[in-house]
Amino acid sequence: MRAKDLPAPVWSAVDAADVVIHAGDWVSVDLLDALEARARRLVGVFGNNDGAALRARLPEVARVELGGVRFAVVHETGAATGREKRCARAYPDVDVLVFGHSHIPWDTTADTGLRLLNPGSPTDRRRQPTFTWMTVDVADGTVRDVELHHLDRR
């Protein structure tokens, strides 16, 4: 079952954030419109569950520099096995790669220093015990803190 709206704690996090990053599977243009209206800045990409209207408004890969940290955002990175090496080759000029698709939280670092982050999902937890999202604090070219937030129910 897909959510019709984001949980209140996620909206509070959106309101507090300088930048909101969404790694795809919006499913509804309404969510994109709502986040664009409410977020100070929004960086997003389309996912495999996103139709033509969303694909017309969002890129497959987004790149942005925030606080001196180079981010790329993409929905799909392939199988978990070999992900760090594969992504380090595909994104050699990036410090942090945010990805989605699996809805499984992920926080690892490739041998090259590339940090890979998947926030999971605040609306579709699949086989995970909780709904999740991440906050990341960056400044002066450094990722200072990554926090995975959990919500038992929507």
What's this model, at a glance?
Helices cover 21% and strands 32% of the residues.
Unreliable stretches (pLDDT < 50, length at least 5) are: none
**Number of self-contained structural domains:** 1
Structural class: alpha/beta
Number of strands: 9
Helix percentage: 10-25%
The helix tally amounts to 4
Indicate the CATH topology: Purple Acid Phosphatase, chain A, domain 2
Which CATH class applies here? Alpha Beta
Family: Belongs to the metallophosphoesterase superfamily. YfcE family.
Organism: Pseudonocardia cypriaca
Pfam families: Metallophos_2 (PF12850)
Keywords: Metal-binding
Description:
This protein has 154 residues and is α/β, with parallel strands linked by helices. The protein has one domain: Metallo-dependent phosphatases (Purple Acid Phosphatase, chain A, domain 2). Helices cover 21% and strands 32% of the residues. The strands form 3 sheets. The chain has a 5-stranded mixed β-sheet, with no helix packed on it. The protein has a two-stranded parallel ribbon with strand order 1-2. The mean pLDDT is 94. Residues 7-140 form the Calcineurin-like phosphoesterase domain.
